[in-house]
Each structure stands twice: as structure tokens, then as C-alpha cells.
Amino acid sequence: EVQLVESGGGMVQSGESLRLSCETSGFTFSGWYMGWFRQAPGKGREFVAASSWSQGRPSYADSVKGRFIISRDYAKNTVYLQMNNLKPEDTAVYYCNADRWAVVPDRPGDHWGQGTQVTVSA
């Protein structure tokens, strides 16, 4: 069974940083696509970042490019989202996402974590 467990959310002030973690189990992490999506209050779920298992470049939403970094620790089967220079508009529930075949902005993978809340105050 695929399991994705997020952690690392919290409340910070504008300009501060957070690192989200997503611990995975139940599948071959090294061969799967991983991503992060978020959902702000009253809005739909939106793409944040994605990482393939190959050496290809990660992809980012324009709104987070240059501030967020997605990375993977293959020894720990964990994907991270380093969030720097956070802004109030980054406030959302952040979800880890995984799929064997693809994670792209307009088509999330099939598997989701439970989400972790990030709140950024001005």
C-alpha cells in the first residue's frame, strides 16, 4: 500500500523559511514521480513542484520559482520541499503527491498524503 506522510508545516512570518517532508512507503521510491500541490482556503488544489526519478530538472509553479526547492533523499525514501522567503499568499494546505508514471501541473499523480498546514502571516 502506498503511503505518503507529510510533516514540517507550521506558522511563520513573511520572509521566513520552512521545510516540508514527505516520508514514503509501499512503492519503489527511486522509480516514481513525486510532487507537491497546495490548496488555499476557498481555492482549488494547485501545482507547486514536481521531481522525476530520472536526472531531469524539477519543475515549479511560476509563483514559487526561485523560492522553493524540491529534493529527494533516496536513502530515506523521502521528498522535501524547502520553502524560502515565504509570503502570505503561500498560506495553504500542502499535499505530497506520487505516481509511477507522471506528476505534472495539470495532472496530479494518483496517490496523496494527508496534507500539512502552512500559514504565513504578514
Summarize the structure.
The chain is 0% helix and 50% strand. It is built from no helices and eleven strands.
Any chance you could write out the topology, listing elements then pairs?
Layout lengths: L2 E5 L2 E4 L4 E8 L7 E7 L5 E7 L7 E2 L7 E6 L4 E6 L8 E8 L11 E2 L3 E6 L1
Parallel strand pairs: 2-11
Antiparallel strand pairs: 1-3, 3-8, 4-5, 4-9, 5-6, 7-8, 9-10, 9-11
Which structural traits does this protein have?
globular; 122 residues; mainly beta
Look at the structure and give the mean pLDDT.
95
What is the number of E strands?
11
Sheet-strand content, in percent, reads over 45%
Helix content: under 10%
Could you please describe the fold and organization of this structure?
Helices cover 0% and strands 50% of the residues. By secondary structure, the protein is mainly β. The strands form two sheets. Strands 2, 4, 5, 6, 9, 10 and 11 form a seven-stranded mixed beta sheet that branches. Strand 4 (33-39) and strand 5 (45-51) form a beta hairpin. The radius of gyration is 13 Å and the shape is globular. It starts with a strand and ends with a strand.
